[in-house]
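Retry 2 of 3 after timeout on previous attempt. Resubmitting structure tokens to design endpoint.
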């Protein structure tokens, strides 16, 4: 009986299914596998939020915590950014992996934009209770430059402001060939005619013969500006012509709304016939006159100049080709 009992006891001391020491087998260290490299094309601006698949993690003592830097959903700059991921288990054992996220920006097909016209291009403030001055930081060409810089950074896009306060449409036309030769723009933005209408088409005079002549004259001057840009030897690629903005609700420089609508009808006809691009600022402003137009009834408040820049910008984005090109701006 003693020998049999000893054999039984020895058998009880042998290896069991959990490693032979009476406890469970310790889990192996964590393992982590990163997703494939991420590629994002057609990025507008200098950065964009990127979402990627979480790494696959196996083994490890629970809980296993996974972190990645930069995190999924964070903002990535143009170019290639490395992403490092780490899995850490309850025993502080770690495993790492890495991949990259490459963002390719859009390149705009025209770099130099020349704006021509009068004080609404130059950026006059139009505030009657303060001295009239040119508010260059809020002028629509300045705002347009900011939009380019935001969405097409580092591409050398330039907006030239050739607006002159008090300039009539025929003067804009006559000066345009010289400006084109001096600036050699790839695109021209035309907004002119207000100074031809302020006297002839004051409120209540839209149906007069004098106002009718003035609206005809402005429309033909805009057409002639378009043709000057088309025929210039500098090779202008894109031409954008704008309708005139509506008058404000009050102010001593208001132009009759019906006259504005009539000249815009004629301008749209010439734009269509000449096959250039319409920037319809009149439509963009209707319903926002109190917000956009200065108290003098003609010039614009900063939100109005911002809206004008956005109208031209939308026309440019819809017309000028944009291509994806890798920007070597890695981190």
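Retry 2 succeeded. Sequence:
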């Amino acid at each position: 009986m003693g020998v049999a009992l000893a054999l039984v006891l020895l058998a009880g001391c042998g290896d069991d299914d959990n490693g032979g020491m009476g406890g469970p087998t310790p889990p192996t260290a964590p393992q982590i596998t990163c997703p494939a490299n991420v590629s994002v094309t057609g990025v507008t601006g200098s950065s964009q939020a990127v979402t990627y698949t979480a790494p696959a993690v196996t083994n490890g003592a629970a809980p296993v915590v996974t972190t990645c830097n930069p995190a999924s959903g964070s903002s990535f700059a143009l170019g290639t950014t490395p992403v490092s991921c780490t899995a850490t288990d309850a025993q502080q054992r770690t495993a790492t992996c890495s991949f990259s996220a490459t963002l390719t920006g859009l390149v705009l097909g025209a770099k130099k934009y020349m704006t021509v016209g009068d004080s609404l291009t130059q950026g006059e403030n139009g505030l009657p209770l303060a001295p009239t001055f040119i508010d260059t930081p809020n002028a629509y060409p300045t705002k347009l430059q900011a939009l380019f810089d935001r969405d097409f950074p580092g591409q050398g896009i330039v907006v030239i402001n050739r607006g002159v306060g008090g300039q009539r449409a025929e003067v804009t036309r006559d000066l345009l060939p010289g400006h084109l030769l001096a600036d050699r723009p790839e695109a021209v933005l035309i907004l002119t005619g207000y100074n031809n209408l302020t006297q002839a088409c004051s409120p209540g005079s839209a149906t007069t013969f004098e106002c009718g002549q003035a609206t005809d004259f402005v429309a033909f001057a805009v057409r002639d500006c378009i043709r000057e840009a088309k025929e210039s030897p500098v090779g202008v690629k894109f031409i954008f012509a704008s309708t005139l903005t509506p008058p404000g609700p009050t102010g001593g420089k208001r132009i009759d709304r019906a006259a504005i609508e009539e000249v815009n009808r004629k301008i749209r006809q010439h734009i269509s016939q000449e096959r250039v691009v319409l920037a319809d600022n009149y439509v963009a402003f209707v319903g926002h006159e109190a917000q956009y137009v200065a108290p003098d009834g003609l010039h614009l408040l900063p939100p109005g100049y911002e809206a004008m820049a956005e109208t031209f910008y939308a026309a440019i984005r819809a017309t000028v080709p944009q291509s994806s090109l890798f920007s070597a701006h890695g981190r």
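Attempt log closed. Residues 1-20, 327-331 have pLDDT under 50 and may be disordered.
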